[in-house]
Amino acid sequence: MTMSMSKTKIYWICQIVGWSLYALFNLILFALADGELTPAQIAGQFLLTGYFIFSTHIYRNLIVRWGWLRILSPRLIPGITLTIIVLSISCFLFELLLNILLGITIESGDLLGWIVSQFFGSLFLYFIWSLVYFVYHYFDSYKSALQYQASINEIQLNKLKSQLNPHFIFNGLNSIRALIDENPRKAKIAVTQLSNILRNTLGMNEKKLINFVEELRTVQDYLDLESVRYEERLQTILNIHPESYRFMVPPLMVQTLVENGIKHGIANLVDGGILQLTTNVSKKEMRIEIRNSGQYSNGRQGKVAGYGIANTVQRLKLLYGDKAKFHIFNQDKDFVVAEIIIPKQVPR
Known about the structure:
By secondary structure, the chain is an alpha+beta fold. It folds into 2 domains: 7-144, no CATH class; 208-343, Heat Shock Protein 90, CATH 3.30.565.10. The protein contains 9 helices and 9 strands. It has helices at 7-34, 39-65, 77-102, 111-163, 166-182, 184-202, 212-230, 253-263, 308-320, and strands spanning 210-211, 234-239, 248-249, 273-281, 285-293, 296-297, 300-301, 325-330, 335-343. A 5-stranded mixed sheet has the order 2-4-5-9-8, with helices on one face. Strands 1-3 form a two-stranded antiparallel sheet. It has a two-stranded antiparallel sheet with strand order 6-7. Strand 8 (325-330) and strand 9 form a beta hairpin. Helix 6 packs across helix 7. The longest helix is centred in the middle third of the chain and has 53 residues, at 111-163. The two termini are 15 Å apart.
């Protein structure tokens, strides 16, 4: 889940290149106006460029801390305007200090004009920087939302294809029919579990994230239903850390990997096998481990490739960027492990 160039690198490249070009433009104007460049002018532009980079970076950190990127509405205009004014005043004071330190004097008759031009010049620059920054993130968020929706739609279609195909319904209903005479109460529970799975699948478009307890409930319904079908061939173990319920997870992500472990691992074994779901929690992240009997090689578990793996990687990347991780590997010759690491902070 690595990108060719991270957003942080792009940000710093734009910062350095953009403000350096602005400084170069100013030096060219000074050279054309005066016929030459003085060391004071060159040093002043160098230091002013550093100040613009520093001040806009502080501005960016405040934007992130205050959560303005999650709002992106006209309600931000007063706050942005006030911040830009404060930055412009600070920049004017910095330029005034530079002139004093570099020995650049301003004629008294030109003082007012210089003050007005420097203040409103800085105001204009910070306004342009804000406009570019917010417009970029607006379109980036819009693009991410479209990508996420496309991913969700793809997952939903695959889930419907997998869980609603005649083979799945046939096996599920046959298992329930066998229970009707043998154990009517258990048959009713199995029908409820099947309906819960289908309802959650159809409703996954409504939320980006759900509480882990909801996801676990769906997983348990699915495992209970599959236990009816596989009987003693399927053994399930759940080791859930109590702090796991404080986390939000993408809907049906864990269930999809559990389903892959059964369908493409345990189902292909004559004697069946074990599926173990374990969670571990630290202060900043939750680690979810799905361990099942079988082998994983060349993008396949058993004989059939699992569609859930590619979509899991894509959804985690769209929701969390590089802060979430997914791995699938053979623990030994008997077991496959799929591991998800999800951060506690709110996804982007």
